[in-house]
Amino acid sequence: MAEPGGAPRGAHQPVGSVRRSFAPWTDPAAQAFIRFEDVSRRFGSVAAVDGVDLAIYEREFFCLLGPSGCGKTTLMRMLAGFETPSAGRILLGGQDLAGLPPYRRPVNMMFQSYALFPHMSVAGNIAFGLKQEGLPRSEIEDRVAAILKLVQLEGFGARRPDQLSGGQKQRVALARALVKRPKVLLLDEPLGALDKKLREETQFELMDLQVELGMTFLVVTHDQDEAMTMADRIAVMERGRLAQVGTPAEIYESPATRSVAAFVGDITLFEGTVERRDGEVVSVAGAAGQAFRVVGAPRDGAVAAAGDAVAVAVRPEKMELLADRPEAGPNVLEGEIWDIGYLGDWTTYRVKIADGSIVKVARANAARHVARPLTWEDRVWIRFAPDAAVVLAR
Amino acid sequence: MSGGAGAGRSGGRLLVAGLPFAWLLVFFLAPFAIVLRMSLSERATSRPPYRPAFSWEEGPAGWWEKLGQLGFDNFAGLLDEPLYLDAFVTSIRIAATATVLLVLIGYPVAYAMARAPARIRPVLVMLAVLPFWTSFLIRVYAWVGILKPEGLLNAALMALGIVDEPLQILDTEIAVQIGLVYSYLPFMLLPLYAALERQDATLIEAAQDLGAPPWKAFWLVTVPLSLPGVLAGCFLVFIPALGEFVVPDLLGGSETLMIGRTLWTEFFNNRDWPLASAVAVVLLVIIVGPVLAYRHLEMRRLEAAR
After folding, report:
1. What CATH number did the domain enclosing A195 receive?
2. Does the distance separating the beta carbons of B210 and A176 come in below 8 Å?
């Protein structure tokens, strides 16, 4: 591929190995590239962003994830310079960005609506940012041609934006931001307007591109699958605050709060009270009389002591569904199959347990034929291992 | 089975499509044919004061015969007498100047309206249209009171010590320009506002994000995208300003010779209907030129947009 990004290329390694070893956030000596320090943004009496502290590292693919209205877009727009923080400061490469207008910031944004200039050709759109830098004509032409090749739109330079498909527009918007060789590329719901198939393809293209160019990507999305697939780390936002920051696996396997657990993936929460705690092992009495035993302390510093109200959270794929009564013990629930959703690779069962609540259990369809398939109204037992569940204090 | 309903529906469609055409035929083409006939006729001391070039009694065969010996004397007369040529040139100059002034004044106003909080925009649009609630004639007449030597403007200028003696503004071309700009401002504002208001604000953010300072983003994005609105406003303003009668008559005095007044004089003072009709026909031709050019541009734009 051509070389459109201006990032240092000497240390370029094969994609896989870079990705595997990339974890600067675990290195105490590593310097954050983007730093939000106690940043708030209030609109009237409403705080869209409320005291956010966040460090993003160079070459990181970082996702801000949350439902609409959680403040993720406002946070990104403050970095781009379209919103001014009401309090706190934002640093990029050690430099405070306060007072720097959007057109002087070394970041570029890909807008959710793409915001392509309708009166300019594809090439004109991409050249727009380079012309603002006052580059010589020949260099502009070379860079536009190179970036068109990179996003696989060679020969589309003379087209107008309204002559393009949704996927092509998305590529032009990406190219227009990339061609400026920004230190950070901001992507606001970059795949939101694409259909499912194209979205999945484009996710992987974006990831390859990011590693290839050695750029820092900051993506805003409400789509958890998108965030999980692409990001090195995810920040889950809720009502203007950061609920949890971590790798996709940390967010999924060790959610910090009930709401993070519920927002990312499917999960069943069993409310209960801590009975006893022996080091790592927490015994919880379920509200409906179940007995749970979970290995691992609750996250986020909230220590569960006897008497605390907590939730035992279990993902659907981490539970077993048994047709025969197992040995009595903790983490076993009896119920009745209420609903079945066959997805091909997986089947999800909604099981109604004694207290009337529904537990979602997923089973991989490893074999084509099952001798005695589970069906509606079957009596079943759910069982999970002590390390399959998480205790959530908040 | 559906034949009757289908015929009814297509009949209805024909009616809907046909009505505007019928309207144009009856109220535009037919009067124009009458004026055209008049312009080819000879002046006479009769009632009406001309001898028709064609009459119903002769029938189509007679018309055809007459076509060869038609007199274009009235049109030739327009060329012989420099008065008419002057009036046309002056009208075009004044209307063009007014159009340029209207763009320069209207654009910032329309831009401010389009960028105002969405809540108060309808109020601003209503304010722009508000003058239409009083008679055009009365509003222009009010300007006489403002501009005359002992009028409000001169009184204010003298009270402020800016001038020592009253300025002669009334009965000059400046007064006509003021009157035209005042009268036609809403016609410039509304299409400009419509073009600016529907513009996507994120385009400006995108331009700034790509390194363009606000003034450059405005010049490279806002202005080009509003050009159709500018063009529409110019035509809405230029065409009626060209034939304007009331403003030059009330504010321009006897010095300002615009085509509308010439037409009036020929019709009512000189009772030379054929000559006046010839003036009207030439005026129409002058106006049709830019309209066709505009349509051509518009078609090309739509073509490009597809």
Report:
1. 3.40.50.300
2. yes
- Rounded Cα distance between A313 and A255, Å, is 9
| Residues A122-162: tens digit of each pLDDT | 999 999 999 999 999 999 999 999 999 988 899 999 999 99
Count how many domains chain A has. Answer: 2
Start-to-end C-alpha separation, chain A: 48
pLDDT at A54 over 90: yes
- Please report whether residue A4 resides in a domain: no
- CATH number for the domain that contains residue B81: 1.10.3720.10
Is a pLDDT exceeding 50 seen at residue A7?
no
Phi-psi region of A310 (alpha: psi -120 to 50; beta: other; left: phi over 0): beta
The verdict on A364 and A282 lying in the same domain is: yes
Q: Which of B209, B223, B225 to mutate to test the interface with A (most CBs of A within 10 A)?
A: B209
**Domain-located, residue A193:** yes
**In the block, residue with structure tokens 């002034």:** B101
Q: Say yes or no for a CB contact (<8 Å) between A128 and B210.
A: yes
* Radius of gyration (C-alpha) of chain A in whole angstroms: 25
pLDDT for residue A258: 87
Closest CA to A132 of A95, A101, A92: A101
Chain A residues with CB-CB distance to B215 below 8 A: none
Burial A245-278 (b: 16+ CB within 10 A, else e): bbbbeebbebbbbbbbbbbbbebbbbebebeebe
For A174-215, the pLDDT digits (tens) are 999 999 999 999 999 998 878 888 888 888 888 888 888 889
Domain assignment present for B22: yes
> Which of A113, A114, A119 should we substitute to test contact with B (largest number of B Cβ atoms within 10 Å)?
A119
Task: Give me the domain span that covers residue A209.
Answer: 15-106+182-253
The answer to whether residue B94 is domain-embedded is yes
Give the pLDDT of residue A5.
40
Nearest CA in chain B to A127: B210
Asked if A117 lies within 8 A of B200 by C-beta distance, the reply is: no
Q: For chain B, how many structural domains are there in total?
A: 1
Mean pLDDT of B53-64: 70
Note whether residue B1 is domain-resident: no
Average pLDDT over residues A231-235: 93
Checking if the pLDDT of B2 tops 60, the result is no
Q: Is the pLDDT of residue A19 over 60?
A: no
Domain of B129, in residue numbers: 17-55+71-305
State which of A222, A253, A284 marks the end of a domain: A253
Q: Decide if B160 is inside a domain.
A: yes
Kindly report the number of other CB atoms within 10 A of residue B205's CB atom: 19
